[in-house]
Every structure is written in C-alpha cells, then in structure tokens.
Amino acid sequence: MTLDDLPTPCLVLDRPVLLRNIAAMAETAARHGVPLRPHLKTAKSIEVARLALAGQPGGITVSTLAEAEYFLGCGLTDILYAVAITPQKLDLAAALNGAGADIMVVTDDADMAGMIAAHPVALRTLIEIDTGEGRSGVDPEDRRLLEIAAMLGARRAGVMTHAGHSYAASGVEAIRAIAEAERAGVVRAAERLRQAGHPAPVVSLGSSPTLRHAASLAGVSEVRAGVYMFGDLFQAQLGTHGIDDIAVTVLASVIGSDRVGGRLVLDAGALALSKDRSTAGAPKDYGYGLVLDLQGRRSLGDAVIGRAYQEHGVVTPDPAWKLPALAVGTRLRIAPNHCCLTAAAHDRYHVTDGGEEVVAIWTRLNGW
Amino acid sequence: MTLDDLPTPCLVLDRPVLLRNIAAMAETAARHGVPLRPHLKTAKSIEVARLALAGQPGGITVSTLAEAEYFLGCGLTDILYAVAITPQKLDLAAALNGAGADIMVVTDDADMAGMIAAHPVALRTLIEIDTGEGRSGVDPEDRRLLEIAAMLGARRAGVMTHAGHSYAASGVEAIRAIAEAERAGVVRAAERLRQAGHPAPVVSLGSSPTLRHAASLAGVSEVRAGVYMFGDLFQAQLGTHGIDDIAVTVLASVIGSDRVGGRLVLDAGALALSKDRSTAGAPKDYGYGLVLDLQGRRSLGDAVIGRAYQEHGVVTPDPAWKLPALAVGTRLRIAPNHCCLTAAAHDRYHVTDGGEEVVAIWTRLNGW
Which of A151, A166, B18, B358 could form a disulfide with B247 if both were Cys (CB 3.0 to 4.6 A apart)? Predict the structure, then answer.
C-alpha cells in the first residue's frame, strides 16, 4: 500500500523523522543526566510510546485518564497524570492502581489534597508549581505549598511544573531564561518541602522548548516533553527543531482546481487540520498549514491553507511561486501548525519510512 | 444518571432546545413550500437525523463518505455527498449505491465530470455553483457550467450551491441579500442548463443563516442546513437564533481554583472545545466559549474560556461580575463558538430533557 491508496484526509507519520526527533531529545536528557518521562498527549499511540521510551526508565506522562487506561492496557504502569485531578476522578485513578498501575496524580489545591489523602487507595501525588506560565500551580514561595503538603501527608511524592509560556517566547535566549526559571522554581519548591520535613523525591519539569535549550537541569529528578516527537510549524519557528523535522502531516486530495484562475481546494479543512492558528503570532504565518507535495517536499513554495471550512481547505499560493496546474485527485500533504491538535482529529497514523510506501498503521487513542 | 455522574469533559445535548431548533427550520422550509434535506455534518448522529427528518421526504446531506456509509447503515438511502468528489472516491460512492444507497455526488470540474460519466455505476451528480462565497463551484454565467454538464451527459441531476459567506455577514439585511443572491444564482444556473437541453430537476441551496432569513426560495427544489439544529455563540450573534437556543454544551469540572486570586481552571481545553475563534470577529468575543453553570444558566455573567491549552481551559471572569468561590470538582458547562467543531471532538451526546438527568446517550460518527 502506498500513500496513493489511502482515503483522504488522513495522517501520515514519517518514522525516520520521528526517530531523529526522539534521539535528539534522549540525547538532551542524557547530557543532563536526567531521565525522560515522555508525554504521550501528542502521540497517544503505544508504538510511538515504545520508541520514545528506548533507553529511558519506562515512566510516562499522560493528559487524560483515558490515556492512562490505554497505556496501562499496553503494559506501561508508571504513569504521571499531569492534569490536576478532581474528586470525581479519584476513584478511576485508584481503580487503575488496583489494575496494576502506579499512578501519580497532580493537584494545586489543599482541599483536593485532603481528599487524596483520605482516599482508601494510596496515590502518589505531585504538587503543581507555577514557574511563570500563570495557568495552574502554586508559586514556589506561596504559603499554600506547605499547606497542600501537610494535607497530603504520607502520600506526597514531590513537585512538578510546566513552563508552557516557553511557547510564547521570542528567541532561544528567551527560552533559555524561561528554562532556568522553570528549573529554579520547581527546585526551590522542593527545597521548601524538604525544609518542612517532606522528602519530595520527585522534582519533575518540562516542555519541549525549555528542555531543548536548558543550560542546567541541576536538582531535577525527571523531565517531561511530548511535542518534540512530531514537531510542527510553530515549534520550528521557536528554534525547537528544523522545519524538516516535522514528522506528521495530513495527506489530502485536490477536490477543486481552477487551472485558469489558480484556485485550489483540498479535502483537508478545519476538522482534519484543526483551527489552531498558533503561527498567526509567529514570524511566519502559515495559515492553517503549509502545503507540501506528495513526497513531503516544499515544491509549492510557501503555499498555505489560507481558509479552512469544515471539510474544505482553500490554498493561498506563495506570491513568489506559480501554483502548478493540479488535477482533481492530486495528492498533497499539509504540515500542521500544532501537531497535538491536528493529530487529535485522526484515529490512526499511516507510517512511512520517508517514501510513499505505507509500512505500518498505528492506531491512536482520542477522547476522555 | 445525572450530569454529576459523567466523566468530564463531555458533550451535553439539550433535547427540548434541539427540538425547538428543528421545528423552527421545518416551519421555515414549509413556509416556502420547499423540502429540507438536513445536513448531518454537524450532528453526525442517527438519533438527531431522525428528529430532523420528521415531516421531510427523507433525503439527507453529508460531508464525508464515512457519514454516507454510517447513515446508509441506519437505513437512510437518499444521500447528497456535498463535498466535491475525487476520482479515488468514486468507487466507494459507487459501492454504497451497490449497497442500497442512492448517492448524489458533486463536482465543479469538467475532467472529474467525465470520470463520473465513464464510471460503470451511475451516480446522480450535482454541479456546484459559486453564488458569492468564492470557495468552490463555478459562476452561474461561466461557460464551464455547460462544459461540465456536457461531460456528465445522462448522469447530470442538477445544481447545488452554499452561500457560506452568509456567516461573515453583518446584520439580517446583509444575510437576506446573500440569500437572494444564493437563490438567484443557482436558479440561473439551472435555467442555463435547461436552455441547453439538460433537465436539471435538482436545484439545491442552503446555509442556516440564509434559510432563516430568505425572502423567497422560488425555483429551488430543496434546501440544506445543519448548524441550526445545535446553534452556537457565533450563530446567535448572526441573528440565526437566540443565545438560549444553543442545544449543545461541554460539561467540564473545575480543576484549579484560587479562591483568593480569582483564578479558575477547567478540564475543558482546546481538544474538548476546539480552537475555533469565530466569535473573535463577532460583536461579542466569547474567547473559546461562554461559561454556564451546571444547569446551563448564565449565573457567571459573561465569564468565558479566555485561554485554551490542550486539556486546560482558563476562565476569564466577566469584569462586571464577581466570580463565585468554586471548589475543585464543581461542574460547569461551556457554550461553544462553533458547534460543528466542538461536537467533532466527542464521540457521544449525553442527552437531557433540560434538567440534570441524562435521559439517553447518542453516539456520533467522527473521522473519514
């Protein structure tokens, strides 16, 4: 089977690029002497997980309990559920532990910490620290940090943070500064816990950009990242990877082609690509994605999906390139703005070894 | 089972509101004496389809062949696949006909029309007409209209158009003008075909806004719409329906609550809500969605999801309302900017009769 045999739109995963991205992050973690706990919220696939876990201790990060359940079913047991837990979700997390998992949950709330501590099933728990993103977590100096730890009692396991604002940084130096604030903040929180008599063995941080550019990870016990596996147009502009390191693309077909007027419409729209417009604020705005040819080359210049309807994607040609006269049915590929959201619209990866042959199909989990 | 028992995030469908929206559109179609061919790209659910088909001839519209296959499996046979077809998709459409469907396909391309005509299985075909949207279709006066009809030969069935630019109109008068251009354009295209000896029995048009406000549908044989069933924050601002006519919401839980600082974080983020920002250009910008209480009331004022991460939604409070101190685990509901995209992230509807009891679960189809 080749890419020409697939129904469109669908997802293509270039395995050599994936392996290269995985190797680069593993090398970064190894250079710092810190183990990697891959975040599987992007890939949501056991095959990708196994590749990302090569040479690592085996712990994973997930963003939903559905992911936790799926990966547990695949034999992965050391699972950090990195989104703050609610009272209603405690029983499910505990049930997964009963089924063989060793789940770590996360909270930044003292009342929630009390409920975790009171639950009959012991759940390792990380206190979420805000190291500048301003989304969730407590400040390392906040008095609530010790209140939460006190509520957790014996169930406490440590601290975690995510410097997600690194995605909004301009330039490598800015990312490096955020990486250091992420490290210093979470290490400081762990120190405060230890001063108060809590061991805090787990000190977990990470985002793909900060790991890529961190100068030091001193005091950190593990790092987390996920987007680096696939890459995307937004990350490429952050300097996290090159534009040729995007492993996942959407295969699409031309459904309308006005070869006189230059109009080109594809069957990949807002559902197949997502409406993520993260590159709108980046140096180069790629609309809803960059149009590549079937081989994944940039032979159409900087043609982008300029308008995205539910199932229609309208191409805006590169002003400097003449769009070739493409027949209806011609296949193209679209590099995504944000791989996490684009991949989430699809239930499988069509894996290639860089060519047009489909060498494997890997399913992925969606939903909650 | 009540809304409090559901894992979050998930989709809630208020059946009385759905029925009211369906009745209003049926009444509009009846007033014009034109049958409605409901577009099921929004709902993608047989239960919703059956409600929308009440009193109608039974024909449906779909946006993917996966939908066509699903609804055929549910016994619906008269199916308009309203996205332009490709050579590769012809065999699947033909196979559905072999399995009992009577599919109408769409094209705006003469070469594609030739391939449809040459296919061993006869497929009814509509020529797509551009009545101002500038997305796909040929202009009613374009010479290609007759070229395509000539290529189709005996398989031609008529013309269709979609005035999707009605969604960008400001005010009811502007929508009314677009509705008339939509009607006049597609009727003119049918007239040209008839003058050239093609019967063109099917003259199909529609979008939820233009149907809602059309002054005349003279010369039209059927109308199509889908978004009207659910409604959303964007449509409510177009004047297509009221803000209380939004039938679908996302149930979410508070996962972070700084009761001193006023920060509120929910477990409904970019995946559960979509990154559709259509209200960014509307009179009222609702961020990634309007926050309602568990009962669906606006007791938090105009609090919106101001920031959407993959699984986190951060609430921006209404400046004029004090956000109540909500505990972690508190349940809220989010009205969506764009119901088609929000619903597509979920695989089922939790149906209520307006209260908190879940009276049914309806699955929905996703993917391609």
Answer: B18
Instruction: Kindly state the percentage of chain B with pLDDT values over 70.
Output: 100
pLDDT of residue B58: 98
Q: According to the model, what pLDDT value does residue A226 have?
A: 97
Residues recorded for chain A: 368
Q: What is the DSSP letter of A13?
A: E
Q: Please tell me the distance from the alpha carbon of residue B359 to that of residue B116, in angstroms, as a whole number.
A: 45
Do residues A362 and A24 touch, judged by C-beta distance below 8 A?
Answer: no
Closest residue in A to B106 (Cα–Cα) = A255
**Contacts of B79 by beta carbon, 8 Å cutoff, 6+ apart:** B59, B60, B61, B62, B68, B71, B72, B96, B101, B102, B103, B104
Looking at the structure, do residues B200 and B253 belong to the same domain, yes or no? Answer: no
Report field, pTM of the whole predicted structure over 0.95: yes
Statement to judge: residues A98 and A209 lie in one domain: yes
How high is the ipTM of this complex? 0.97
DSSP character for A326? P
B75 and B211 part of one domain: yes
Residues A86 and A186 in one domain: yes
Query: What sign results for the dihedral spanned by CA atoms A190, A195, A197, A199?
Result: positive
- B259 has pLDDT over 90: no
The SS3 assignment for B364 reads: coil
Count of structural domains within chain A: 2
- Report the mean per-residue pLDDT for chain A: 96
281-340 of A, contacting B, C-beta below 8 A:
307, 309-312, 314, 327-329, 340
Whether A58 and A186 share a structural domain: yes
The conformation of residue B322, written as its DSSP 8-state character, comes to P
- Rounded Cα distance, B294 and B249, in Å: 10
| CA–CA separation, A174 and A170 (whole Å) | 6
**Same domain membership, residue B343 and residue B273:** yes
Closest CB to A135 among B88, B314, B366:
B314
Amino acid at A26: A
A21 part of a folded domain: no
